[in-house]
Amino acid sequence: MALGLLRRRRSRSGPTPASGVPLPLPAGAGAYSCEVVDPMGQPLGGAEVTVTARDSHRVAAHGTTDPYGLFMAALPPGSYSVMVTAEGLTPARSDVAIAADTALPPARVALLPARQLELPPPGTWLFDPPHTAIRFIAKHVGMAHVHGRFTRFTGGIRIAPDMRESQVSVRIDAASITTGNRTRDNHLRSADFLDVEHYPYIDFTSTRFVYQGGSKWTLNGTLTMHGTSRSVGLDTTYLGTVNGGYEQELRCAALAKTELHREDFTLNWRSMLARGIAVVGPTVQLELDVQAMYRTSETPTPPE
């Protein structure tokens, strides 16, 4: 949270807002504050507040509300746009003019429930490879990051009448790993890492869908890689269902993320630089950006 209002200046007592609480301000600054409440009118802690200058479009203040739903910031005089967001609720935007040496009365911002996205109809949905990506990020030599992806995979979603009983399965061709560097890719395919000769596939099968509110779900399941199976949870955002594509077929989309620990899957190759810095970090960020087509007798086969 921007804490400009809390900066104490011994030479100023500052303006006093409607509540009567002294509010010291830097010389020439103005103050913006708001109270964010949920649909039931209760204080909403953890809501994100972004204050953007209207002339330059630069973010002047950004932070989250405290446990009482309050946010405060000291700002130079000018016109600003204020955006307030919270998971599962509709964002609220307002414009405000800040004057020098003036603290505006706290604005009350009531967030309303977000429009619920319609869930996909029950049935079988197949991944559309040209519009689906399986990406990963790993730390390299303790500071940089290596970005990569898998280019060959198959998978689908079986949507049950009760969404919580739905299932996702993905099979990835381990040899299709690519990071844009041939030498590094060959090393990743070798016995030091994925050992694709003995373990050609990486498989994920979900066991449970857990609703987290709004458009958020957790997909619990089993990931098998390098001959080892582990339970993982994918933090998933459902992006909706539309008609469109090759033959205007029905399709849905979602974005899923998780963090994997290499040694959980016996990917424990180690190499150190001077001063003990690891060449490859212990964790890998995995992201699945998925589009799937509703499978019927008339659905076109997804292209390779």
Model description:
Helix content is 3%, strand content 50%. It is globular and about 70 Å long. The chain has 304 residues and is mainly beta. The protein has an eight-stranded antiparallel β-barrel. A four-stranded antiparallel β-sheet has the order 3-2-5-7, with no helix packed on it. It has a three-stranded mixed β-sheet with strand order 4-1-8, with no helix packed on it. The protein contains one helix and 20 strands. The N terminus is likely disordered.
Strand order of the largest sheet: 10-13-14-16-17-18-19-20
> What spatial form do the alpha-carbon principal axes imply?
globular
Strand element count: 20
The helix/strand series, from N terminus to C terminus, equals EEEEEEEEEEEEEEEHEEEEE
Radius of gyration: 25 Å
Low-confidence stretches: 1-22, 271-279
Query: Distance between termini?
Result: 48 Å
Largest sheet: 8 strands, antiparallel, barrel
Counting H and I runs of at least 4 residues, what is the number of helices? 1
Oligomeric state as shown: single chain
Percent helix: under 10%
Report the sheet-strand fraction. over 45%
Q: Helix/strand-derived class?
A: mainly beta
Mean pLDDT score, rounded? 83
